[in-house]
Amino acid sequence: MKHIIIAGAPRSGKTTVSRELTYLGYTHYRLDSIKRACFSFFKPKENDWHAASKFTIEVIKKLVDDNEQESIRKEYFIFDTPHVYPEDAKELDPNMFVIVFVGYTDIDVEKKIDYVIMHDSDTCWTQKLSRDKLRRLIQGNISFSREIKLQCEKYHLPYFDVSNNFANVISNVKDYIKKNS
After folding, report:
1. Looking at domain 3-180, what is its CATH homologous superfamily?
2. Given this model, what pLDDT does residue 3 score?
3. CA gap 43, 48 in Å, rounded
4. pLDDT digit string (tens) for 31-66?
5. Partners of 140 in the beta sheet?
6. Hey, what long-range contacts does 84-87 have (CB within 8 A, 24 or more apart)?
7. pLDDT at 169
8. Contact 4/181 with Cβ under 8 angstroms?
9. Spatial contact of 86 and 150, defined as CB atoms under 8 Å apart
10. Cβ atoms within 10 A of the Cβ of 66, count?
11. Which residues of the chain have pLDDT under 50?
12. CA angle (27 as vertex; 25, 28 as ends), nearest 5
């Protein structure tokens, strides 16, 4: 069994996959909350995603290392985060981690907005955003997805694009993780 990192663009299915795989005995960590809490104490430059990525990798290493050293019963984790770049994830031991990236590089912005609105719950962070704010957010996430896709190609890490056939791609992500964990 290996730890799992599901990284990539916001609203690309990371949490959906993570929650659906917890039945295999994994403990699910949504690292957005941990990053926000830590960054509220020491503030990097506004939207410095590369600093967040390096920080998030260090948090993952520390959680896994502490678990290895201190646990009577070893736990296995699923880390769900938009705050990791492939260039930072490549340094993690592939014998200990299954790492996948998800994003949407080729989706119509208005179509994605409709999809987000249709699938928002009362507790979802995007639920109260205006259509205009969602548009800007999704445009940025498409650019972010393109960047991580290029890095995945460079570092030979798996990238799954959920632009089309979301449910089928999410199923493929789960199958890949199960096969490689």
Report:
1. P-loop containing nucleotide triphosphate hydrolases (3.40.50.300)
2. 95
3. 10
4. 877 766 666 666 656 556 677 788 888 888 988 988
5. none
6. 84/5, 84/7, 84/53, 84/56, 84/57, 85/49, 85/50, 85/53, 85/147, 85/148, 85/151, 86/148, 86/151, 86/152, 86/154, 86/155, 86/157, 87/53, 87/151, 87/154, 87/155
7. 96
8. yes
9. no
10. 10
11. none
12. 125
User: What are the residue boundaries of the structural domains of the chain, listed by start?
Assistant: 3-180
Q: Which H or E run includes 110?
A: helix 109-119
Look up the pTM and report it. 0.88
pLDDT of residue 130: 87
pLDDT at residue 46 in the model: 56
SS3 100: strand
Written as six digits, the tokens of 121 are 């719950």
